[in-house]
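Why does residue order matter? Because the sequence determines the fold. Keep that principle in mind as you read this record.
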Amino acid sequence: MIDINFTFIGKCWLWQGKGTWHFITLPQDKSEEIKFFSDNHFGKRRGWGSVRVSANIGGTVWETSIFPSGSLDAYILPIKAEVRKKQKIAAGDDVEVLLQISI
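Structure:
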C-alpha cells in the first residue's frame, strides 16, 4: 500500500450540468503521482477512474473520491455543501486542502 499525503492551495470553482458542483483542482505533479500509482495496480480504481481520499479543509474532515479530469489533465476534488457552509467557501475562493490517500 502506498500513502500519499499532501497539503495544497487551490481555487474553488463551479461545474454546471445536471446540478451545480463545486470542485478544487489538484496540483499537476500530485495528480501525475496519484495516476501513476493507481494505474499500476497498487490500488483498486473505482468508477470513472476515481480514487478514495480523506480530505481536510480547516479542520472539517470527510471521506470522498477525487476524479480525473481529461480537460484539466489533473484530478478534481468535489467540495460538498456541508463543508462549504461550515468553512464559508464560495466559488473563486483559494482554499487550503490536506489530502490523505492510500492506494
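Residues 57 and 97 are 5 Å apart (CA to CA).
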